[in-house]
Amino acid sequence: MSRTKDYPYHAYLLNSGSSNMNVNGSVTPVEFTHTPTENVTILRVIGQVQPIKMLGGSPVLTNGIAIDLVLQDGTVVDLTGGRRIYGDIGWLGLMHEVDYPMDIIDYVVRWDFSKPGTEINLTAGDTFRITINDNLTGMTNMRFMLQGRVD
């Protein structure tokens, strides 16, 4: 069955088949990516994260979490405007919605690109990437999913 335009699209960002970002990227950065095989429009990114302060010690990361696009021609588009995520407040600076229930460990962040009217159009072969540059092994769960439509 072939897909038609405006077919819903969703995909986890993966590293070696795993979506869980509780990795150690402090020495060698760890990339979680998704490269569509067809042209897609990304409307939002949904993330399930744990408070960075749960890692113990400082509630701030040393090197931060980077979010960008890598286009087929090698161009890197920084989606954070040069501001990596260094702490829990960093999610608030980028995401339009943060659901932070006080009675559970995980919280949900939602970066909705359609709200400011700037959807992300990925051509087949472009890559959406989140790079972990710190040790997040103290977290039990952190993952992100892209949501959108096939163009």
Secondary structure elements and pairings:
Layout: E1 8-12, E2 30-34, E3 40-49, E4 60-70, E5 76-78, E6 85-87, H1 88-94, E7 97-99, E8 107-112, E9 120-122, E10 127-132, E11 143-150
> Could you report the average pLDDT, rounded to the nearest whole number?
84
- The chain-level structural class is mainly beta
Task: Please provide the ordered H/E string of secondary-structure elements.
Answer: EEEEEEHEEEEE
Question: Uncertain runs with pLDDT below 50, 5 residues or more?
Answer: none
- Portion of residues in beta strands equals 35-45%
Distance between the termini: 16 Å
Strand segment tally: 11
Q: Which descriptor suits the 3D outline?
A: globular
**How does the major sheet shape up?**
6 strands, antiparallel
CA radius of gyration is 15 Å
User: Count of DSSP helices?
Assistant: 1
Q: Roughly what percent helix? A: under 10%
